[in-house]
């Protein structure tokens, strides 16, 4: 991941020493969404400032709460309104004059949300409590859209996630995708990975919450085994997209390849026999909505990477598991899941060696170490079964090492 402030300082130094021309420096920085004139603070400074402003807001709310019951309603309402207007006014003034003020706008958004909650408490407006968070989101949306401040956008994403979880027991959170769409567009325009990652995580949450309403009964939405099916397909698609984005070297998606490798940890629970036994017992077979929601994702992953092994393995596994999988076959599925994780880790080690990429190499090596520890602590079947699995893993590793030793120079030359 490129640090924009460090890159800007380095290019300024090169420009001062005459190593590059000003036009070259501007073109390099424009690729990462910044420029020579930008004097933004470091990430640490921005984080500490945001925390300080948040604590100021909390301190003000505590002071007000200490004397809340003794104040007339009109004074309470006027005080909340004045505090919200003042914080947002300072933020808008600084944004209009200097292009800054994100911290004050963030503080103003926090005060706005607190005002909604306290006014609702004063006038007993609590018929549908998620609506309070929804009003907070609606008020924060235009501020985030027009100012494009990252702190306000992050607050919008966090509020969207909270509202979706609160709203789901009552009705499907359809509106969540609108707020996430705006936040994602702002993150894309600003090349803001710190916002894009929460947006994508919240989008995955939204998809799962919507799927829970497909499984709903008279008692409300439910989480079923189909959610595991759907999330496995979502994970495979994310892996394929991360591989493609890594080749494009686009700063908007710089952390995603590394995050994609870390996401393999989601597969580690599938290396336990107990999970497979419950999953094969609980899914709905061919009628499982999770399967039909997963199939388009896997087909998209195959279309993006037709030669990839992982999408084809996932497609075959899900179809076979839903069509003919039985709880008594859980041991075989567990062994297969262990071997898939092993093969993916080996592929990362190989790519790390060929591309001289230490992050990819150590991601594969770390996955192997975690897998070995899990298998030692949780003996699949019995001692002999676990020993046999270790021997199979050792044979695959040794065979792969022999193959790469013979083919390594040719592949590197190609």
From TrEMBL:
Transmembrane regions: 47-68, 74-92, 104-123, 129-145, 150-166, 172-188, 195-216, 222-241, 253-272, 284-302, 309-325, 331-349, 361-377, 383-401
Residue span(s) of domain DUF2157: 13-150
InterPro entries xrefs: DUF2157
Keyword vocabulary terms for this entry: Membrane, Transmembrane, Transmembrane helix
UniProt key word Protein biosynthesis: no
Pfam families in alphabetical order: DUF2157
Keyword Kinase (UniProt): no
Protein name according to UniProt: DUF2157 domain-containing protein
Species of provenance: Alcanivorax xiamenensis
